[in-house]
Each structure stands twice: as C-alpha cells, then as structure tokens.
Design a protein that fits this description.
By secondary structure, this protein is α/β, with parallel strands linked by helices. The chain has 2 domains: about 110 residues, no CATH class; about 140 residues, Response regulator (Rossmann fold, 3-Layer(aba) Sandwich), CATH 3.40.50. Helices cover about 50% and strands about 10% of the residues. It is built from 10 helices and 8 strands. The strands form 2 sheets. Strands 3-2-4-5-6 form a 5-stranded parallel beta sheet, sandwiched between helices. A 3-stranded antiparallel beta sheet has the order 1-7-8, with no helix packed on it. β4, α3 and β5 form a beta-alpha-beta unit.
C-alpha cells in the first residue's frame, strides 16, 4: 500500500447512488416494539403513500424479514433497550456490514425522541440514512421520503464505514474536493500533514464515541504520527493497523466478544517498537 492510498477517507470510496425506490409499490419494513407508537407510525406511513408494510417487534425478527424480502425502506424505533441485541445502532451495523446481502443498501430511518448530538452522530456513523424526532407529523415523513428520492446520496464502502455518504451539502466550490487524498494529489498539502489531520480527526471521533478501547487506539495513532518527520509506506502501514484495529473492535463488540483489550494492547506494543527504532 502506498503512503498516499493510506490517506483515503470514507468519502473517497463511493458507489453510484442506488436506483430510485418506489415507496408505494415495494414493501416497507417497520421495526417498533411499542404497539401504540407502531399503530401511529403505520398510519403516518400510509398517509405518506406507503401501502405494503411489514411489521416486526424485535431486531432478530427484522433481520430474518430482511433476508426473505426486499424492502424499499426500513423505519425503526430508537428507544432505550434493556436487551443489547435490540440496540438499533448495532442493528444498523449488522445491516451495513452484511456482505453480499441484497438489503445492505436499503435506506434506514430511525425515529426517536430528542437525543444528544453525540447519539445522532453515532447513528450516522453506523449507516443511518435519516433521523426523525418524534412525535412525527405525516407531512414530515412525506417530505423526507420525497427528499430521499430526489436527493439520493451515494453509497460508501470503506474499511471503517459502510452506508450513505455522510456529506449532505453539495459542493459549490470549483477545483479539488479538499479531501485528504485529493489535497495531496492537488499539491495543496503533504502526505505528512494530511496524516496528522487524519490522526487528529480519528482521535476526536473515538473520544466522541466513548468506547475506552477505541479512545486508546485514537491516542496511539496521534502519538505515533506526532513523532514522525516523514510519511512513507512504513508509516502508512501503522496508520492502516490502527484503522483495522478500530474495525475489529466494532465487529467484536457486535459479536459480544469480551476479549477486545488484547487487540489494543497488541497495537500499542507494535507502536512502541516502531517508535523505539527511530
């Protein structure tokens, strides 16, 4: 892997926007554990033009329904769940990382009472297409479905993110896209400076997520990059190790694997050895 390629961000690896979906003809999967709220949601969706609705009350049943059908849309509640398997963010991750699954790119709308910005960012980073605050007016759902049809975002696949492009605003500037790899290609920055920016962004992202082990990975990368004077394939390899470690931590958490600490400890040991060689 070249040093430049290691700087690629999730926004750099995109697939074309998926084909237009017909909310009125294709089924919509509703996942909601509250019968009262579920009936209201179904009524709102029907007012929005959705006719074929598949209803599930548990995440495990929703995954089975996804495998058996090809819904145009998934609408899920996002409330506090005592069962970790019912965590909607974990469900999102399972949907987006299901390799070769026909439902992988299906738009997912999360419905919730007002939440902290950190929660919304966490859902976005798991691959949520939209986040709507309840109570929900029918016109809000109608307008959001129209927006999803006319302003479709490309689907992104990268080592640490799979889902709709997180950039919503179209660029109005001309010239380079001002992403890290593009900046290097355009001569606007050096690989070393781009790597420092990427390390800082990753450290901030992990702190925002709140996972102590992920935070250690972010700090490890920042520490390593801060001590480098040049950026070559050797440094790029260490950067990729950190990204791979974060992806592995997410997978292990989703699988309920408690042995996550050795992943980070091993990474930190490698960094110490690399720094000792300087």
């Amino acid at each position: 892997m070249s040093a430049q390629n290691a700087l690629t961000t999730v926004a750099d690896i995109t697939a074309p926007a998926p084909a237009l979906r017909d909310w009125g003809r294709q089924p919509t999967l509703v996942l909601n554990s509250n019968s009262f709220m579920r009936n209201i949601l179904i009524s709102v969706l029907r007012d929005a033009g959705v006719r074929d609705i598949i209803v599930e009350t548990r995440a495990s049943r929703a995954m089975l329904a996804l495998r058996d059908t090809s819904p145009a849309l998934i609408v899920a509640d996002w409330d506090q769940q005592s069962d970790p398997d019912e965590d909607r963010v974990r469900l999102l991750q399972r949907i987006r990382t299901a390799e070769d699954a026909h439902f992988r790119e299906t738009p997912v709308i999360l419905l919730s009472s007002p939440r902290p910005q950190a929660d919304v960012v966490r859902a976005r980073d798991a691959g949520a297409s939209e986040f709507l605050v309840t109570p929900l007016a029918p016109i809000t759902m109608i307008n959001r479905l129209k927006s999803m049809q006319t302003d479709q975002r490309a689907f992104v696949e990268a080592s640490r993110y799979v889902g709709p492009d997180r950039r919503r605003r179209p660029r109005r500037e001309r010239g380079p896209s001002f992403k890290r790899t593009a900046d290097v290609d355009a001569g606007l920055t050096t690989p070393m400076e781009a790597a420092r920016c990427a390390a800082l962004a990753l450290a901030l992202e992990t702190r925002r997520g709140g996972d102590p082990l992920a935070i250690r990975v972010g700090r490890s990368l920042q520490r390593f990059i801060a001590k480098q004077k040049t950026y070559s394939a050797v440094e790029a390899e260490v950067v990729e190790m950190h990204r791979a470690a974060l992806a592995q931590l997410v997978r292990m958490a989703d699988d309920g694997d408690p042995l996550r600490d050795p992943v980070v400890s091993g990474l930190e040991a490698i960094v110490e050895k690399r720094l000792a060689r300087r």
